[in-house]
Amino acid sequence: MRRKLAAGNWKMNGTTASLSEIEKLLETHPDPACEMLICPPATLIAQMAWRCRNKHLKIGGQDCHWAASGAHTGDISAAMLADAGASHVILGHSERRTDHGETDAMVLEKTRAAWAAGLIAVVCVGETERQRDLGTTLPVVGGQLDTSLPEGCTAANTVVAYEPVWAIGTGRTPTLDEIAEVHRFMRATLVERFGDEGAGIALLYGGSVKPSNAAEIFAVADVDGALVGGASLKAADFGAIVDALAAA
Ligand code: PEP
User: Strand ranges (DSSP E) for 18-165?
Assistant: First the structure.
């Protein structure tokens, strides 16, 4: 059985006032039938992780450096995230790739660093609108999987999120058939490379997931959950998405 994971990416949103959303989520979803993960800004990880200790809500980072420590002003290492109480880290999000020039090679090194610190890597891949229009979605995603994922990927240490860049924060989503095609392709690619472990790696869909479309997306084969941006900021919306996943 693959893990089912509802993951929230708060991006650069949230201050201590937002801790109340975590309280609400813990109240309404004390023991959901799927895993829940919130990745807040780094400033909130320690407080949230402390609040969520012994609860069914995991806390993660949104990025880490590939080095364990050193002269990297403004960066944060995987070991620091783990020390703050994080269990996961999102890597290679398209906003990191666009805003900070992150390459697949960097994502691969970051993934290794995450594992070394005992974190689960949530590695993001996805095509731009132009790449989809050109019909190159599968080669693009395949190339990202090949060069972003190191040897040693297992169902326990890695989650892969398919996030079409053009669907993030836009309210637009691929059709269910398009999601199915990419997830089927990713599954086959991971199985070919990692065998049984590839068959067990959870595959998330991300890009404008909301309470109104979550159930139909979770009904797609090989969709094991979602990476949710905007709709993860409010406990009520994220909770509804968790409910849809738990019921899938
Ligand atoms: C994301 O940031 O990973 C994301 C999927 O955002 P949104 O749900 O807002 O499209």
Answer: 35-39, 58-61, 88-91, 120-125, 158-162
